[in-house]
Amino acid sequence: MRVLVAEDDAVSRKILEASLRRWGHDVIAVDNGDDAWRILTGDDPPRIAVIDWMMPGLDGPEVCEQLRKRENQPFTFVLILTAKDNTNDIVSALNSGADDYLTKPYHPQELRSRLGAGIRLVNLTLELEDANRKLFEAAHTDFLTHIPNRSAILARLTDQISRSKRSNTPFVVALGDIDHFKLFNDEHGHKTGDDVLIQVAERLEDVKREYDAVGRYGGEEFLLVLDDVDEDSILPVADRFRLSICEKPIESDGQLLRVAMSIGALWVPPENALGVDILLHEADELLYRAKAEGRNRCCVDSCLIVPDVPRVQNG
Length: 315
Description:
single chain; 315 residues; alpha/beta; Alpha-Beta Plaits; five-stranded mixed β-sheet; elongated
């Protein structure tokens, strides 16, 4: 396991570093609290830290205190080393957020045992984090297509509305519906219908950019949230998604099936980034028009909705 060592005394640091490497750990060694803080708050930080109390810059308890103030951060087991040995010092170190405390001079095997307890705690935390991640993914992922489900894609649309206003960039909200989907279930069975949904989702995912989002809105309907799209690009952007479905047959149980999708795409400038329900209603109207005009096509428009302003009556 990777371990951060923060110790300003060069000899003590080298001895500690050598012991940790001999016990099989990867070691990152620094000689001051500011560097320790930078590493512990950087990308992919070590999950074990052995920190001296007295150091240039931030001291050990200050590093702990600031580390524990950060929310939604990975757990780091922190052991403080110090020559201070009275009860008040121990209480102070633990109250600052340290997980353990070892008084200098210490026996190497005692340090190894305390680190072992820390590693067990970190491993339990990692298992819990992994379980929570899987639960989150299950709650926000469609069970069949493995793309964001209805609640997740609606949350993304809500975020996109806020992002559009902050960054002053337009976006597109689009609803796509598989044409004549009921026929696949009626003529070929529900397994074929599932295969169609899965492969349509895969093709939509392949077309989208990294910062776009595609989710299963319900049944055979998909919601697309496409960031930073120019008004002149609405139709070609929407058509890329449509063509990804109809240009190549979908295979199910040895059969090649011709599948098509109708799409209603609404371009939303920042000043008209209104509520989710309003935007979805407008996109749904465009989708309905695409169906009425013959299916396997895109109907696009710009969101030019003006919110109702209460009239002031004279007198």
